[in-house]
Write a structure and sequence with these properties.
InterPro entries (chain B): Complex_I_20kDa-like, NADH_UbQ_OxRdtase-like_20kDa
Number of strands of chain A: 0
Distance between the termini of chain A: 31 Å
Structural class of chain A: mainly alpha
Family (chain B): Belongs to the complex I 20 kDa subunit family.
Shape of chain A: globular
Number of strands of chain B: 7
Order of helices and strands of chain A: HHHHHHHHHHH
Structural class of chain B: alpha/beta
Radius of gyration of chain B: 16 Å
Pfam families (chain B): Oxidored_q6 (PF01058)
Number of helices of chain B: 6
Largest sheet of chain B: 5 strands, parallel
Number of helices of chain A: 11
Order of helices and strands of chain B: HHEHEEEHEHEEH
Oligomer: heterodimer
Helix content of chain B: 25-40%
Keywords (chain B): 4Fe-4S, Iron, Iron-sulfur, Metal-binding, Ubiquinone
Shape of chain B: globular
GO molecular function (chain B): 4 iron, 4 sulfur cluster binding; metal ion binding
Chain lengths: 315, 161
């Protein structure tokens, strides 16, 4: 546990929690402008959260503790990833947890917890959403593991800080075929895992087409605020990981205030640009039919597999 | 994709300039909601004229979302119930249950003449009454169907923006 790691962990937690709703607001604003609307402003998700926290808390009849602890667990697990993953600094606050397998497992676990809560609510849409989410999750997790594993092959370590550190020392590796294939595979993973188009439409009102939203239809008030904050944080963490792995420049390698400030600014700018790009791309996409989603995810798994193969064959 | 991009470039901003913000004369809960209102729409027996206008109010031209109002899929997520149409027999219980599912603080907006006083459907055999006969109504929007501007104005009274 180094000073750099601890400073990074604290900064990352603050930036992700404070910035995740703003990222969501930015993405909605980009979409609104491209649709010809004026948009509610970047701060709207924070206004929504402030109002939800003040609202009455409701636990629907027939729900158990699973339903009540799920939002807390979702935020907690995502927060752990936000603290340990190399986003602002190349060192980690808790190095053993900053492992590729642990981070991917934590993010998957958060999804499973919400899926269980969806089942626990006992409504038709909750169960349907949970079944869909778990289907997507089962197809996405191998891709995420294999894609990041392809990046760890030349490093010889599955520790994320080491992977990012080596990429910084040897930037040529970032444009190798293995890295590019892994980037495309991981992009598909992020789109599927964070419920963006073309896999899931985050702004839909039609229950029958929902994946993520269908599981959380029964949440209200402060619990809903946690679920929304957790979902926004997941998106920021995934995008932050993606930019750290493939565009690592700007990340802090020393514990000086200047380097840390630069690391924070670099993270915010990179994630903001990638998020805005994703939102702009979504305007041009329609949602895929649910039965076509596995084809997309199988394609991304193939790319990840090719990435690992080329990483071994081409070195 | 290229043609869509050209359409986006050609149309630019379709939203009309925002009218002056409302004087704070809305329902008392507007202060508690503080600029964010999630709206659940309930069709209690409408002819779908009001639905078209609500759709227009959230469309690019009137853009109710810029004032902090957003349509949601679940009454649990909602702060405001927008009810249209005279309440028909089959919709009395669903409307009441939807009202109960919304957490406090909440607002009920009756949109259109049918929701206010049953309009042309008054005393029809399938109609129980106006929305106010079933759940307490905080705001009413006049018109058959109401213009999108008046719907947006009512929603702005709720958001206070």
């Amino acid at each position: 546990m180094s000073a750099l790691g601890v400073a990074g962990g604290v900064l990352q937690a603050v930036v992700i929690v404070g910035g995740a709703p703003l990222l969501l607001g930015l993405m909605r604003q980009v979409r609104a402008r491209l649709e010809g609307r004026a948009g509610p402003g970047v701060g709207q998700p924070w206004r929504d959260l402030r109002k939800l926290v003040r609202k009455q808390s409701i636990s629907p009849r027939g729900t158990t503790e699973v339903f009540r602890v799920a939002p807390v667990l979702l935020v907690a697990m995502t927060l752990v990833v936000a603290v340990v993953a190399p986003l602002v600094t190349t060192a980690s606050a808790v190095p053993p947890v900053a492992d590729l397998f642990v981070v991917v497992a934590l993010l998957a676990h958060a999804t499973v917890v919400i899926a269980l809560a969806g089942l626990d609510s006992g409504t038709a849409f909750g169960g349907m959403g949970a079944s869909r989410e778990v289907t997507v999750l089962a197809l996405v997790e191998p891709t995420a593991l294999v894609a990041i594993f392809a990046l760890s092959v030349p490093t010889g370590s599955t520790s994320l800080p080491t992977i990012v550190g080596t990429a910084l020392d040897d930037p040529q590796r970032l444009i190798s075929p293995a890295s590019l294939l892994a980037a495309v595979a991981l992009a598909a993973v992020i789109v599927a895992e964070t419920g963006r188009l073309p896999v899931d439409n985050p702004s839909t009102h039609l229950e029958l087409t929902m994946i993520h939203e269908a599981m959380v239809l029964e949440y209200a008030g402060p619990d809903l605020a946690l679920v929304e904050l957790g979902s926004a944080m997941r998106l920021s963490v995934y995008l932050g990981l993606f930019t750290s792995l493939f565009v690592p420049w700007g990340i802090a390698t020393t514990a000086t205030p200047l380097a840390l400030a630069l690391g924070v600014v670099a993270l915010v700018v990179k994630v903001g640009v990638v998020g805005a790009g994703l939102a702009a791309l979504e305007v041009f996409l329609a949602k895929l039919r649910l039965f076509r989603v596995p084809e997309l995810l199988a394609g991304s798994f193939l790319l990840a597999l090719l990435a690992v193969t080329t990483a071994y064959v081409l070195g | 994709m290229l043609s869509l991009w050209r359409a986006i470039r050609r149309l630019g901003r379709a939203a009309e300039p925002a009218p002056a913000p409302p004087v704070p004369a809305g329902p008392a809960v507007a202060a508690e909601l503080a600029g964010s209102v999630q709206v659940r729409h309930v069709d209690a027996g409408s002819c779908n004229g009001c639905e078209l206008e609500i759709g227009a109010a959230f469309g690019p031209v009137y853009d109710a979302e810029r004032y902090g109002a957003r349509l949601v899929a679940s009454p649990r997520h909602a702060d405001a119930l927008v009810v249209t149409g005279a309440v028909t027999r089959n919709m009395v219980e669903p409307l009441r249950r939807t009202y109960e599912a919304v957490g406090e603080p909440k607002v009920v907006v009756a949109v259109g003449d049918c929701a206010r006083n049953c309009g042309v459907f008054a005393e029809a055999y399938g109609v129980v009454g106006a929305v106010a006969d079933v759940v307490p109504v905080d705001l009413e929007v006049v018109g058959c169907p109401p213009r999108p501007e008046t719907i947006v104005a009512a929603l702005r009274l709720c958001t206070g923006r």
